[in-house]
Fold each of these.
Amino acid sequence: MTRSRLRARKLLLLGGDAPLLLAGLAGFFLLLSASYVFWLPDVSELRRKNPLETSFMRIKERQAAAQGKKLGRTIIWRSWDGISDNLKHAVLVAEDDGFYRHKGVDWESTRKALETDWKQKRFAKGGSTITQQLARNLYLSPSKNPLRKIKELLIARQLEKELGKRRILEIYLNVAEWGKGIYGAEAAARAYFGKSAADLGPEEAAALAAALPSPRRYSPVKGTKFMERRKSSIVARMRASGYLPEEADEEEMSESLAVLTSSDTSVEVSSAPAGTP
């Protein structure tokens, strides 16, 4: 048998095995994807442990390091009672007004987000609850990969099951990014207003909540038209939801939004156990 015939025969045999090879590869990647999606972190430790580092923090710092920069990190943990009710309410109406009604996932918002994404042929709308945002912040990445989204949903359900609403919101307010290297309500309150998170007034709280969708793009204290409209909308919704009186205290609502200019990028953490002031 000539060499050309032998080569042709080998190719024919390989061609016959190609479907099996493709099926094997598909099965391997399916198994890999399933392993990624269904491997879930143990969130029960968050009942007592205050997370002082998140996946998002590490990603941002690696990105800065890749550019030859060092990104500082300021995070100062505060318990539930150490955070102003104004900020809790502002964040709820701005980010997830159905927080106390859903079980981690707002399926109606998710459906609307998917419809918008489908129409625009891109990931244009989030639709994530506070619980989903926390799951993504703590354990995942900003990637809009569909597999990541599925895992986010599963972790969100676990958080709801293990922690409950109050603890979820407490952790969220302590690890949310509010600017480059600024994490949590206390660090943000000090950086932008020179006060504790416990002392934030309605407008200051609304300003912080208004910046949450894109904290590196929008500053709580730079009065752009977009931020002013968003802040006013949040205050109005706080009032409509019964979180503020119809006529808010004039002195409190007119507090100046003074910026505390500081170059301190050190990490300050609380060693107090979860749930303590």
Note: DSSP finds eleven helices and two strands in the chain.
Amino acid sequence: MTHRPKQPAPFPTKQQVLDFIRDHPGEVGKREIARAFHIGPAGKADLKALMREMVDEGQLERGRKRRVARPGALPHTVIVEVTGTDTDGELIAKPIAWEQGGKPPRILLAPERRRQGTAIGVGDRVLAKLHRINDHLYEARPIRRLAPEPSRILGVFEPGPGGSGRLISVEKRDKAEYMIGHEDAEGLQRGELILAQLLPGRHYGMRLVKPLERLGDTKQPKAVSLIAI
């Protein structure tokens, strides 16, 4: 009895790839797509070319480590900020990092399974696991509540491209860098100690700040004493 050779699975269409990625929150790699559509080594090059074409057409966007996602898709795990409640009393949140332009997807925060201490409320920042309902709605399950961000940042100014600047925090518990817009950076000098107000939003992944007070060069006694506090 002869056995017929196993026929290879049909190569997926762009729509099938989009449907697969839509059902998987966050970023997806070539390996997961190949496994889902039973694409063997001989078809990997064609799959890579298809994904590159979809990125060029704007149907997909590149993520980390050669992974892709639908434009505007949120990652599987994300930091959100609770902004209010809906008519049913459920908490509504928004992603802390949103650089797509336009309005971010709506996020409904599910109740905590094991509540310790005070309940999560408006203004809290939460590390949460997302479940996509559709392109405009996600459900989030809290992993843990995060410490509140400081409203003011003390840092050293460094000039940036296009007249903008960076504020490098001198806080012991915060070694992050922040962005100062070109209008607010005008007149500031390299190495100057700045007290700044944290602003909502991000620019190229960096939090925005607005200078409140210029405290002089970091070598001056007043600045040195402030950094040491």
Note: The longest helix spans residues 44-56.
